[in-house]
């Protein structure tokens, strides 16, 4: 689906002008989360591809691609069985990639609790490369926005919301959305403002942060930042 930042923000501003903050969140909130998750998945995918490309093994690679095809066809149980076998018997990078993909398939099946547990387990495994651990933590954090508390999201990913971390933009956005969902507008404002203030923030992430700051201002529940 094509997405136009300017038209999207214009629609949200119209909602603000009509003082329908709750309606705006109901209308756009889930969409914001979905769009942001796609960005996180894309970033994590790049990290995982680089890891895979450095550790190629043709036989295990064929098995991994076959499992991914099953998942893409929504044959989730078959995909999980294939990935479990690859995790146990694969070589090189493939056991880790199988674990990551299996956690994603669990989320795809609608079992968010199992997916979060799987991503958290990978994120705590010191035998897994740091970049992949961070990708797993981010996936858990985003799932927790809808399926957990702000404190759980914070525990999963706040350590990545720091200057220099490759996932800091996604981490700050997830924390901001989790705080907003929890009704903590002051905390949400701080996270979204940190995105706006970071000159390296991707344009689409910064645009969404500006929009959320407008929603928070319209709520009257958090003071505007002093310029």
From TrEMBL:
Domain Ancillary SecYEG translocon subunit/Cell division coordinator CpoB TPR residue range list: 25-202
Known Pfam families for this protein? TPR_21
Q: Does the keyword Amino-acid biosynthesis apply?
A: no
- Report the principal subcellular site: membrane
List the membrane topology term(s): Single-pass type II membrane protein
Keyword terms? Cell membrane, Chaperone, Membrane, Transmembrane, Transmembrane helix
Quote the cellular component terms of the Gene Ontology held in the record: plasma membrane
Q: What subcellular compartments does it reside in?
A: Cell membrane
Kindly list the GO molecular function terms attached to this UniProt entry.
Answer: protein-containing complex binding
Q: Which domain of life is it from?
A: Bacteria
| Database matches in Gene3D superfamilies | Tetratricopeptide repeat domain
Q: Which residues cross the membrane?
A: 31-52
- Similarity comment text for this entry: Belongs to the YfgM family.
Q: Tell me which PANTHER family the record gives.
A: ANCILLARY SECYEG TRANSLOCON SUBUNIT (PTHR38035:SF1), UPF0070 PROTEIN YFGM (PTHR38035)
Query: Protein name, please?
Result: Ancillary SecYEG translocon subunit
**Which organism encodes this protein?**
Rhizobium fabae
């Amino acid at each position: 689906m094509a997405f136009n930042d300017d038209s999207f923000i214009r629609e949200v501003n119209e909602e603000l002008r009509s003082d329908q903050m709750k309606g705006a969140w109901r209308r756009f909130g889930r969409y914001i989360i979905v769009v942001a998750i796609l960005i996180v998945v894309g970033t994590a995918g790049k990290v995982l591809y680089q890891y895979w490309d450095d550790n190629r093994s043709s036989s295990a690679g064929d098995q991994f691609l076959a499992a991914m095809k099953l998942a893409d066809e929504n044959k989730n149980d078959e995909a999980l069985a294939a990935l479990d076998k690859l995790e146990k018997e694969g070589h090189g990078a493939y056991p880790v990639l199988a674990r990551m993909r299996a956690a994603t398939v669990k989320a795809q099946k609608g079992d968010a609790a199992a997916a979060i547990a799987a991503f958290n387990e990978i994120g705590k495994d010191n035998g897994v490369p740091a970049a992949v651990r961070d990708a797993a933590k981010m996936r858990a954090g985003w799932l927790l926005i809808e399926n957990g508390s702000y404190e759980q999201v914070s525990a999963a990913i706040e350590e990545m919301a720091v200057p220099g971390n490759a996932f800091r933009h996604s981490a700050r956005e997830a924390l901001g959305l989790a705080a907003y969902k929890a009704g903590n507008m002051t905390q949400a404002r701080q996270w979204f403002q940190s995105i706006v203030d970071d000159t390296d923030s991707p344009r689409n992430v910064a645009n969404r942060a500006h929009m959320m700051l407008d929603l928070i201002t319209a709520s009257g529940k958090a003071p505007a930042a002093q310029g």
